Amino acid sequence: EVQLVESGGGLVKPGGSLRLSCAVSGLTFTNAWFSWVRLAPGKGLEWVGRIKGKSDGGTTDYAAPVKGRFTFSRDESESTVYLQMNSLKTEDTAVYYCNTDNGYYGLDVWGQGTTVTVSS
Amino acid sequence: EIVLTQSPGTLSLSPGERATLSCRASQSFSSSYLAWYQHKRGQAPRLLIYGASSRATGIPDRFSGSGSGTDFTLTISRLEPEDFAVYYCQQYGSPPKTFGQGTKVEIK
Question: What pLDDT is attached to residue B17?
């Protein structure tokens, strides 16, 4: 069974940084692609970006609101995906979900999410 | 960027009724990359439909998807109590993989 477990959320001041982790089990990590999606209070789901599998170069794509501030990375030895968030803004407050980006089959497995609150 | 507009914003129905949710895209794209998700408060979103019309693993057959081009539909043939939730469409062909704003299906 594929499982994704996010961690690292918390309270941070505007302008601060936070790193989220997504521990993955139950699949061949090296080839897998992952996306991050967030849900802000009172808003809908928002795609944050994705990181491709190592065999596809591990390249990344970002949504416009986070480009230049957020960075995805992956650690093959730990089967973990990371989301480094810098220069955080109040509008980044949300539950952050990682999920498997399974090509034609969609975002088919989701973690339970981790909450990020950006407030002074 | 492809903008997805879902309608209605809220659907008030009774258990056993049929729900029809719409998702319209700002430009045409391959229907192979249109998905529907269900989200309940406090839970992770769940993939229902991928490729516009294929049910994901374990999804009951009362859920069906259709459409192509710019117009897509999610139909729930007979609402069960556990189906009252928020539903999102998403195009996932090319980044940014945008979501619609969601349709809330609530108990009438």
Answer: 97
